[in-house]
Amino acid sequence: MKKYLNIKIIRTIFVMCSVLILCIFINSCINNPLVDELTTNLSPVRNLVGTWKTTFPVKFYHQTDFCGDYIDEATAMWTVTWVITAGSNENNISIKMNFSYDDYQHLPTPCNDWGWIPAVSPMFLNGVINGAFLSVYEGTTKIGDFSYTTDNMQGTWYHKDCIIWCTGERTETNAFKLRRQ
Hints:
Blueprint: H1 2-30, H2 33-39, E1 50-53, E2 58-64, E3 71-86, E4 92-106, E5 123-130, E6 133-138, E7 141-148, E8 152-162, E9 166-170, E10 176-180
Antiparallel strand pairs: 1-3, 1-10, 2-3, 2-9, 3-4, 4-5, 5-6, 6-7, 7-8, 8-9, 8-10
């Protein structure tokens, strides 16, 4: 009986020490300035505040899962303007996205023109800058990845809203091009 108690005590002490060591390790990682430095965003390489417009209309694919799988239902050519204002710090921006579209082409799908709910202009978005890259969010949902120079920006759009069914828009990779005005 005494040997059994000694083994049980040793196991308990081992588990407690293991948990303590794990907690110390996690705490040192969380509070380590080097880790903070590696996980923070790089300063923007350029100031993005201002008006940006598509030089040419961009082909957007309208999507839905109304009939089952999430599929491209139609295409349209979008003309887009972004009005970018400063955010809470140098890495955050606010984007007011105005857009219009034409040349709507329905694609052959089982939905027969049903399922896609048009996006409403303007859209109010947030951006997080990391060096020469911009991630665009609607609320907390990431909907775009862009790279930029002084006067040009290009990226990929993949907006998706799900309420009763999912609907959204996407572009081809780096097909969404904007120019500073």
